Amino acid sequence: MSKLLKVTSSPHIRHEDSTRGIMLDVIIALLPAAIYGCILFGLRAAIILVVTVATAVASEAIWNLALKKPQTIGDCSAILTGLLLGMNLSSQTPVWIAAIGSVVAIIVVKQMFGGLGFNFANPAMTARIVLLVSFAGQMSNYVSPIDAVTTATPLANNTPITLKELFFGMHSGAIGETSSFLLIIGGLYLMLRRVIKPIIPVAFIGTVAIATLIAGGDLKLAIFGGGLMLGAIFMATDYVTTPTTDLGKLVFGIGCGLITFVIRQFGALPEGVSYAILLMNILTPHINRLTLSKPFGAKEVAKS
Prior knowledge:
The chain is mainly α. It has one domain (19-289): Ammonium transporter fold, CATH 1.10.3430.
C-alpha cells in the first residue's frame, strides 16, 4: 500500500458548530423579543439593553487585559450575557444598577470561576438574583405599556387580563419577558438549528402547568404572565450549567417547574423562575452523575 492511514486522537466526529456560532444563534433568537420590548417600553428599555451589553463586553475585556489572558470577547458570550440580563430587567431599572448587574455576571459569576465553561450557574440569571436581593425596591418597579403608569406584573396583582394580552405582551413586566409569542418563535428557531433540545423547556413549562391546574390556579397567568418562557427556553437550557443526558435534562426541567410553582404558590415572591434555575444548576453535577449511562461491559471497581 502506497498510502498510509493517518490515525488521530478522539474525538473523530467533528461538527461545524462553534462557541461563537451558538452564541450568535441564541442572540438572533432573542432579538425579536428584545426589539419588541424596546417598542413596548420605549427608549429607556433600549438604553438598559445597550448598557448591560456594553458593560458586559467591557468587563470581560478589562478582566482579560488585567490578567494578561487571551481576549475572549470575540466568542460573543459576553454579548449574550448582557442581552439576557437586560431582558430580565424592568425598563425602570436605574442604569447604574443595570451596569452593576453586568459586572457581577461577567466578573463574579463567570470569570472568577474560570471563564466560559466553568461557571456553576447562568451568569445573567445569577446577576439578576443578586440585584433582586440587593436593590429590591428599584428592581420591583415596573410600568404598564398601555397607560405608562407604574404597576406590578400580572403575577403580582389581581387585575383581570386576557390571554391575548398575555401572549402578545401587552402587560407590565421585564423588557424581554412579556411577549411569549416571540420567545416561542425564538425557541423554535433554536430547536430547528439544533442549538437546544425541547426536553427542558417542555418539562419545565409542563410541570408548572400541571401543578397550577392541580392547585386550581390561573393557567394562562402561570404560563404567560411572568418570566417562565424566557427562563425555560433561554436560561434553563444553558450548555454549561444543565445536565448533559436526556434523562438528566428531564429531571432538571421537572425540578425547575416544581420549585417555580412552590415559590409562586407558597412564597412571598410572585416569581420563582430565576431561583428555581439557580437551585437546579447547583444540583446539575449530581444529576449528571446519577443519570450517566455505564459503558457496555463496564464493571464496578472492587472496594479494598
